[in-house]
Structure formats: C-alpha cells, structure tokens
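Final report, closing paragraph on structural work. Over the funding period we assembled a curated collection of sequence-structure pairs, and we close with a single example.
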Amino acid sequence: MPLTPLDIHNKEFTRGFRGYDEDEVNEFLDQIIKDYESVIREKKELLDRVSELDDKLTHFSNIETTLNKSILVAQETAEGVKRSAEKEAKLIIKESEKNADRIVNEALSKSRKVALEVEELKKQASVYRTRFRMLLEAQLEMLNTEDWDDLSQTSKEQQEEESYENF
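Its predicted structure, as stored:
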C-alpha cells in the first residue's frame, strides 16, 4: 500500500546520538508531503479525466455504431428504392410498348378501312360516271333520231291549228 501524505507527516524517526538535524529533516519531509499531495491530486484529476474520456469514447463509439447501422440501413433502403424504381420503369416501358403497338395497330386498321372506303368510292364514282355517260348518250341518240323531228313537226302543227281556231 502506497504512503499517504499523512503517513509521511506522522513518521517518527528514532534518534541516535548526534543524529540528523531535526529542523532540516522536518523541512524536507514538509516538502515531500507537499509534492506527494500534488502528485496524488494530479493523479486523481488525471484518473477523473481518463474516466470522463472513457465515457465520451464509449458514447462516441455507440454513436459510430449507430451511424454505421444507419448507413447500412440507408444503403439497403436506397438499393430497395432503386430496384423498385427499375421495376416500375420496366413496367412503364412495357405498358408504353403495348400502348404503342395498340395505337399502331389501330392506325393500320383505320388506314386499311379508309383505303377500302376510298376504293369503294372510286368504284361508285366509276359506276356513276358510266351511268351518267350512258344517260347522256341515250339523250343524244334521242335527239339525233327522226322521232324528235316528228315530235317537233307535230308540235308545230298543233300550234298552227290552235292559232286558226282562235281566229
């Protein structure tokens, strides 16, 4: 067990014949006591400081551990979000491709339908043109026949008869 300042202070030396100068020994012991008290005080302060720093180190180690865990959780979450976003992007692309295919197919179908309608209208126009030509040709033929001259002659005769009757 180490000496305390009180042990040093209370220490009694045996005296011999012509021993040490008592004042000089007491003065030296007083100096030792002061230095020893100072060393003990400093040691206690250092131990307190070490204890405080150990507590802080433990605290910061806990914070470090918590932060590392938080970083890992954040990384895992980020990876999960990234995977989810990639899946969603693929679904959106797939849906867009389906819609694009549907739109293209509808456009092709409408295009075919319009082309068929155009062909049908061309046929109808051709039939109409042919019928109209036939009608005109028939009318021209009728105008070129003698029957028309007879009709016009008959009509003139009737007019003349009516004019005589009116007199």
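The chain is about 90% helix and 0% strand. Helices lie at 5-10, 22-144, 146-166. We thank the funder for supporting this effort.
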